Amino acid sequence: MQVSEAEWTDIEKNIAKTAFDQAYKREIEALLKQVQQEVCSLQELNDLWQLHDFLSARRHEIEGKYNYQYSALLFVFAGLVKDGWLHLQELEGLGKDKLSKVAALARM
Amino acid sequence: MQVSEAEWTDIEKNIAKTAFDQAYKREIEALLKQVQQEVCSLQELNDLWQLHDFLSARRHEIEGKYNYQYSALLFVFAGLVKDGWLHLQELEGLGKDKLSKVAALARM
Fold this sequence. Notes:
Two copies of one chain form a homodimer. By secondary structure, chain A is mainly alpha-helical. The first copy, chain A, has helices at 10-40, 45-65, 73-82, 96-107. In chain A, helix 3 crosses helix 4. Chain A is elongated. The two termini of chain A are 14 Å apart. Chain A binds chain B through residues 28, 31-32, 35-36, 39-40, 42, 44-45, 48-49, 51-52, 55-56, 59, 62, and chain B through 28, 31-32, 35-36, 39-40, 42, 44-45, 48-49, 51-52, 55-56, 59, 62. Chains A, B: This is Fluorescence recovery protein. Chains A, B: InterPro entries: Fluoresc_Recovery_Reg, FRP.
């Protein structure tokens, strides 16, 4: 299922980068908004440590997930589609084989 | 410099517990307020990870610091006085030896 960089055309690379950045932007904006909302309801120290635990988990997840390497990109896109940060239509222009792989992985 | 529990009278224990709780309340309230202010100015992911680093450090510090054991209490009070979370006057009623130890440690 891995696709090396050589198998991406320049046009596909542009589409991929735009989609990747868009998903990242969406997820980060949602996270910032969520943190701002949660902070409003902080009442006591335990709430703050829960926020800290939440940030630890999200940081670990996000730093691992947004890995822009062509060999992993179809998996990354599939995860982003599955989680709602990216729409399949935003990948239109990629080769049909790539699109169908992303769609199949996203359904798993 | 350590003072075992046997060396604390009941009156001193009450004064100590009240002062300890008061300092804790002050520090936690200040921390919650600080986090709420910092979250207002979150612009991007790096700001959020800076907040996460800050919370990691504060959690480690606070969980270590608020240790209510009589043998350690004079050191704890000295640190709280030094950092401004407790006033020496709030410890009035403790034996003079204890007060002077706290005052001396707080100046170090």
